[in-house]
Amino acid sequence: MAQSPAPISASDGGDGAEASETWIGPIAIPDTPEGRSPAGAVLSLEPVTATNYHETLGLSVHPEQERFVSSNAVSIADCYIYPGTNPRLAREGSTPVGFTLVHLHAYGPDGTVRFFIERFMIDRAHQRRGLGQALLRLIADWAARFEPVPASIALGCVADNAAAKTLYRSVGFSETGDVRYGEDVMARPLHLPTESAR
Question: What distance in Å separates the CA atoms of residue 97 and residue 43, rounded to the nearest whole number?
Answer without folding.
Answer: 10
